[in-house]
Design goal:
Four copies of one chain form a homotetramer. With 155 residues, chain A is of the alpha+beta class. Chain A is built from four helices and ten strands, in the order αβββααβββββββα. The longest helix of chain A has 17 residues. Chains in contact: A-B, A-C, A-D, B-C, B-D, C-D.
């Protein structure tokens, strides 16, 4: 289970993308549940953010460091599919992967589970803004765009 | 501008679907804004729910009536595309349309504007549950499935 | 009902303090209700903020203007007594009064009603900060500290 | 540091009251911070609930068990004093104590710290309701009302 223990890269579409080292756990709070007794669907968007923040922290480039650099990362789009309801005290473990990188945008994919059961899947798309202008990712992070065809995936 | 004044139906894919009579207005609250000074992206999912609730109220079949009938309407999927950031005190006007109905699921589409500018678009998919079982929409609401080819759109 | 129609001042402790011109209405949202089916208690603190923001807007000195002036107004303390539960779709009308002003702090009192019934009462205490330092209210807003003994209350 | 390791009782006013075995940690989320860049004040009321839930879990009588018993525990009053602002990623450790028990009501006191610094203090008052009626605590939990004068505090 290397995926759980060390930061690794996902080999996909001839590129290597990062996944989270260890999954993020969100324990559902009382105030996150609604009149139906289940976790309100809007909160999953927040759990996805928590997991994303945790991934960046694990990589050593957290939101705080980013903000200190004058870079903000607005969310451009988000989607979530609810597969099974969760409720108060459920421990949702969330895996995050960077799944797409283009010139100006990048996307994370999320899978949330309670035990072995998938409870939600989602995706979020972001850009980076610096002084009000979008950061050209290919220039700033050329490593993400290296031709990776010849590299072996690390898992 | 009949669309703003009366409940009407959208003629699409040979079916008539309902739209909201008047758009729903959400005025952004201080506590809905984040460290970037903009409305936190998760809140738009809540605004969509508010607009949906308002549409159902306008139609005279609100959440409360539904719950009193023993019917709940879980969200199955949601997506949102953020086109322009909004902030504290912005008045977002949201239009909702029922855009898809299948045997077990239905979807609403949302367009949110500040003034004339589109700030977000979104979609949510739902089912109806009664005593733990999904409601077969074709049986319960046959009107939604009538062959509408011969009807004239109402606008 | 001057109180409902025009900004007025409350004559108390030999000082005149302002009240809101018209009460603020918060309609309880679905996502604000919890597993007990009632408005989650934490949300009332947000409703109090909404009502306070509305009061300042009515007075023409809103949060935005304050922030543009480089002034922020942190909350120093808050309390709320829940007298009757509220739920989804309830319309809570909230009256706000400035009830105390001292050298560095000021307090608002809130009464929230559904119909004629009081559902909560609360109080919040604030200071003003400018460039990291507390604003001395007596210097900045001497009008609030004028000897008011001889003035007639306006209602 | 027995207080950190085992459930213990606070000897006060000739009664023994329980405190949490180990403090509860809340790590501040991005979406919990506001335009001032600090944790929005309303969220502390939620952190207090989280800590209270955690205490009851540690005691083996959690919300879920309570709800399964048909007992709900509405909040009757809450207050919070903000001593120092906190922000994104701060780890707030919260100690909870049961500080008052009367015939129908009981109160918890909270102290939240970041490192050694107190960032907030608060209190919440509750009752228990069963089938719409308040539970008489002295009858249901006589142990809490035992004369404790002769007992030695356990720490």
């Amino acid at each position: 289970m290397l995926q759980r223990k060390a930061c690794f890269f996902l080999y996909a579409e001839k590129k290597l993308y990062l996944c989270n080292m260890k999954e993020y756990i969100h324990k559902v709070k009382y105030y996150e549940c609604d009149r139906m007794g289940i976790t309100h669907h809007s909160n999953y968007i927040r759990f996805m953010e928590e997991a994303r923040v945790d991934l960046l922290d694990q990589l050593g480039y957290g939101f705080e460091k980013m903000e200190a650099d004058g870079v903000v990362s607005p969310v451009m789009a988000v989607n979530c599919t609810y597969r099974k309801s969760t409720t108060f005290q459920d421990q949702i473990s969330i895996e995050v992967k960077l799944v797409k990188v283009s010139t100006l945008k990048f996307s994370f994919a999320y899978v949330g589970k309670v035990g072995d059961e998938v409870v939600f899947t989602g995706e979020s798309t972001h850009c980076l803004m610096e002084k009000g202008k979008p950061v050209v990712l290919r220039k700033r992070y050329p490593g993400l765009f290296d031709t990776e065809e010849t590299k072996e995936p690390t898992h």
